[in-house]
Design a protein that fits this description.
The structure is a single chain. This protein has four domains: about 1-55, no CATH class; about 70-145, Immunoglobulin-like (Sandwich), CATH 2.60.40.10; about 150-260, no CATH class; about 275-405, Glutaredoxin, CATH 3.40.30. Helix content is about 45%, strand content about 20%. The protein is built from 13 helices and 15 strands. It has helices spanning about 1-15, 20-35, 45-55, 150-175, 185-210, 215-225, 230-240, 240-245, 250-260, 305-320, 340-350, 360-365, 390-400, and strands at about 70-75, 85-90, 95-100, 105-110, 115-120, 125-130, 135, 140-145, 275, 280-285, 295-300, 325-335, 355, 375, 385. The strands form three sheets. The protein has a seven-stranded mixed β-sheet, with helices on one face. The longest helix is centred in the middle third of the chain and has 29 residues, at about 150-175.
């Protein structure tokens, strides 16, 4: 009887564990060891549980972990005699390759799941979800049509584009009424914030409804959304299909938001190494936590919005408070080469100090993936604000240094 019950429990575990990620499997094993380690007796309901678990572990087509037989085809100009490669976005694995002939190509095969993939040769690329039929349009970098999963993917992109079109239309109307930067950017930003819940809900629904490549695509958009708080990610993660939790991208976002929690307002600044423009080794701690408000401007020579923010917001702010000993701006060049940095600094002639050659370390420590990123550090080294831009940046500094005449927007 003991062996028979153990056998039934093993069946149940195998059925259930096929639905779990690695973390879930470890929990089941530990639970089994602690609960039935002696195997003296097992409840009769184990038979029912085994049947239930086995039934629930049956995978439906195009759902969790289901293998997909795919055909991905289309036309592309200028690549005759060259190879196109298909790779899995989540693990960068090359799935397939094919030769372009007479302007046409076709991938045909099977893969472990209906993944979100990239097809490319040099600058020619397109993104799609593996499906029984996908027809690629390299002009749009997307499918033009296909089978069921592809059609749902295109519906999601269409809904996403409607929100973006609303923003773009509003920007055109503002320009037609004479609005220019920085006012244009600030009004646009307010509309962006207003539409934020609509966009995030679109991604959430896509993640919940699609345990396949569509969900993989949507979770990329959700996790990478500008200004997403760790609490918002945690809530999404808890309700996320198990299939998606096993993706390496999820590990990336979990680490990102864990890091972000340590670099939110109220937390102490995080130190890192850098160099001055003249090659001297320095640390961030040589500048912050010394009794001044320090505005950290993370930027790079290749970043157009960084340079625009510097000219439209930082330079006027510097001129306004350059003689105030309570405040300083510190440029932090990140994700850039030394030569390009030095050339840019020579041309831009920023009057505030710069530290350079930091690589991507600040991004990893402070939990951001896009620039410009502007963070305000208090006199004692506490992070006060982050993601400051435009008039909000100016009004924040004004409220601190000149509170009698200021009001935070």
């Amino acid at each position: 009887m003991k062996n028979r019950n153990l056998y039934l429990l093993a069946i149940c575990m195998c059925g259930c564990m096929s639905m779990l990620g690695q973390t879930g499997k470890v929990k089941v094993i530990k639970s089994f060891a602690s609960t039935y380690g002696d195997c003296q007796s097992l409840p009769k309901t184990i038979i029912s549980a085994a049947i239930t678990c086995m039934a629930s572990s049956q995978v439906k087509p195009n759902q969790e972990n289901s293998q997909i037989n795919y055909i991905v085809k289309g036309q592309v100009d200028g690549l005759d005699g060259k190879m196109l490669y298909m790779s899995d976005y989540d693990n960068n694995k090359t799935i397939d390759s094919t030769l372009v002939a007479n302007g046409s190509f076709q991938f045909k095969g099977s893969y472990e799941r209906p993944a979100y993939v990239r097809i490319e040769n040099g600058r020619n690329y397109a993104n799609c979800i593996l499906d029984s039929l996908v027809v690629i349009d390299f002009d749009t970098h997307l499918p033009s049509f296909g089978s069921n999963i592809t059609n749902k993917f295109l519906e999601l992109i269409s809904e996403e584009q409607k929100i973006q079109d609303e923003l773009d239309k509003f920007a055109v109307e503002l320009r037609s009424h004479g609005f220019e930067q920085p006012e244009l950017g600030e009004i646009y930003s307010h509309l962006f914030d207003k539409l934020r819940p609509k966009r995030l809900q679109l991604y959430k629904q896509a993640i919940a409804d699609n345990p396949n490549g569509i969900g993989e695509y949507a979770v990329r958009l959700f996790g990478g959304f500008f200004g997403l708080a760790p609490e918002e990610w945690d809530e999404m993660y808890e309700s996320m299909p198990i299939y998606l939790k096993d993706q390496s991208l999820i590990d990336h976002f979990n680490k990102k938001f864990t890091t972000l929690r340590n670099a939110m307002p109220g937390k102490p600044f995080i130190d890192f190494d850098a160099k001055t423009v003249d090659g001297k080794d320095v640390k961030l701690s040589d500048y912050v936590g010394k009794g001044k408000y320090v505005l950290l401007d993370f930027w790079a020579s290749w970043c157009g919005p960084c340079k625009q923010e510097a000219e439209e917001t930082l330079r006027p702010l510097y001129e306004k408070y350059k003689d105030d000993d309570r405040f300083m701006i510190l440029g932090v060049v990140t994700w850039d080469s030394h030569d390009r940095t030095m050339e840019a600094l020579q041309n831009l002639k920023y009057p505030w100090p710069q530290i350079i050659d930091t690589g991507q370390t600040p991004m990893e420590l402070y939990g951001f993936s896009g620039i410009p990123m502007i963070i305000l550090i208090g006199p004692d080294g506490t992070i006060l604000e982050r993601e400051l831009r435009g008039s909000r940046l100016t009004s924040t500094i004004d409220a601190i240094l000149n509170p009698a005449k200021s009001k935070i927007i």
